[in-house]
Amino acid sequence: MRWALLAALAVLLALPTVLSSYAVTLFILIFFYGFLGQAWNVVGGYAGQLSVGHAAFVGVGGYTAAMLSIELGLTPWLGMLVGAALSAVLGAVIGYLGFRFGLRGFYFVLLTVAFAEVCRIAVSNIDALGGALGLYITFTGNPRQLQFRDGRAYYYLALALLLLATATAWAIERRRFGVYLAAIREDEGAAEALGVNAFAYKMRAMVVSSFLTGLGGTFYAFYLFSLQPNTLFGIPLSVEIVIRPIIGGAGTLLGPILGSFILTPLAELSRLYLGQGGLHGAHLIAYGVLLIGVVLFLPEGAYPRLRRALTRRDQSGLAAHTSTHATSTDADRSSGRAEPARADIRPRSIRAGLTAPATTIPAGLKSPLTPATTPPLLETRGLSRRFGGVQAVADLDLVLARGEMLGLIGPNGAGKTTAFNLLSGFLAPDAGEIRLDGRSIVGMPPHAISRLGLARTFQIVRPFPRMTVLENVRVGALARHPRAAEALERARGVVERVGLGARERVPASALTLPERKRLELARALATEPALLLLDEVMAGLNPTEIETLIQLIRAIHASGVSILLIEHNMRAVMALSQRIVVLSFGEKIAEGTPAHIAHHPKVIEAYLGDEYVDAAPA
């Protein structure tokens, strides 16, 4: 791929010597719109924040550089940096308003469209900027003023802009920044639980994207020598920017470039042939038809489909090689040569867990009901949360010692998951205190709590579906290992530990339910937590799968991780827990050892039922 890209670049550098002036102009437009698409791709593709008013940053950058050149004589080579910086500031303002107040989907779209419309109206009513008629730049042919008599100079400048944006996207992809943006795009809540500060990283993406787009505004102004507010700040230009990454493949490095190579010639052809009869905006009709086709047949864009096709071809060649190797192995068997002994390929943690003894009450506890003499790892006092007229959690006092495995049980609607959401920062309590390792965490966001050593799984599994198993777990590993190589090595070890080593390159969307459960557990473990909250990790599993997971949880606990467990499978709860807390209608009704809880009258009445007593542990 590297050599192919270098060859393509060499061809593009040589093309102007053989192309006609019209063809050069067409390539300038391809590069320019590819550049704008790549700039938008940082926030819209990688981070998944759909900005449909991005043309505003083109206008801000263009008008700023033009006015600085006309009024102050500042060369546009510097003015473009000033315009880009102003665009970045405005992008930060819009990002703050959208992200701080949790605007997503259509609401964020409306915010960005409104911003572009405000800019259009404001510029149209400022006479110093040319008003509604626009601003015109006198052509001098002076390169210092970003003006060239030879169109090939604009060709190379547009190509340089495209390469700049692509290099920026490439650098983002290969750093923690890009990994976190992809996780935010897939599931922002799950990313926060792994220590990702979603607000901060979305803001960074918005600033980078608006800065690059502002640079493009200067090129636009000094290539066309005119700026009209209705054109620069209008929805059609925003559509031109957004649709190229979508067609090519948003969130991929080459998607915006491929999209521009597809759409820009199509736009020119549609204007040439469909616009002759006075049908203005004909290219938008062609865009609409093409976009419908992409949504129906290529929902991820053209580049991902092309990449999969090339991958399948490579894998088919590998399969043929493997088949040949297998045939020779069969021949060895038939000739009587002995096969080597097969090693136990299960992860070491599972092999150890299969023979691990039953957990015991930590020595630090005075008794099953008395907190440890050392400060507890987790403690809540009077924790409460109400939803309207429903008291989900009421005055919950909870103590979990360092090294303990505590079960939290109760009927559906008892407040168990609400308690987990309070502990992990996804909900703020109405009253009460939460202390993690002696430190109050009330009011902290989930990513901050995660970095203090608390990790969790979710009742309904929330993998990042378009990312592979290894990429999913790497998101968690980056919290403790910012270096990409270290994080990848840590993630690979955790994936192997939970028994998914053979599936590390498989997309999470292709996993079975038991595999997704283990993947979610692996992601949480990759953050290297002191306390792990497990929310019904055995729900939907068969007895064999449950037994395997029990052994894995025992091995994790034996490695020094404290565990708070929500589970409806009472066999598993009784086998794993050292103590159990029972909730009913948000209130704690019992606390004690598994044997004590199994025979507690209130627990039997509210949750277990009389039929459980006969099979309960003594």
Protein model, in words:
This protein is α/β, with parallel strands linked by helices and 618 residues long. The chain has 3 domains: 13-242, no CATH class; 362-453 and 532-618, Rossmann fold; 454-528, no CATH class. The protein is 57% helix and 11% strand. It has 25 helices and 14 strands. Strand 5 (378-387) and strand 6 (390-400) form a beta hairpin. The longest helix is centred in the middle third of the chain and has 33 residues, at 302-334. It starts with a helix and ends in a 5-residue tail after the last helix. The model is unreliable at 321-372 (pLDDT under 50).
Summary of the model, kept short:
Mean pLDDT is about 85; it is low at about 320-370. The protein has 3 domains: about 15-240, no CATH class; about 360-455 and about 530-618, 3-Layer(aba) Sandwich (Rossmann fold), CATH 3.40.50.300; about 455-530, no CATH class.
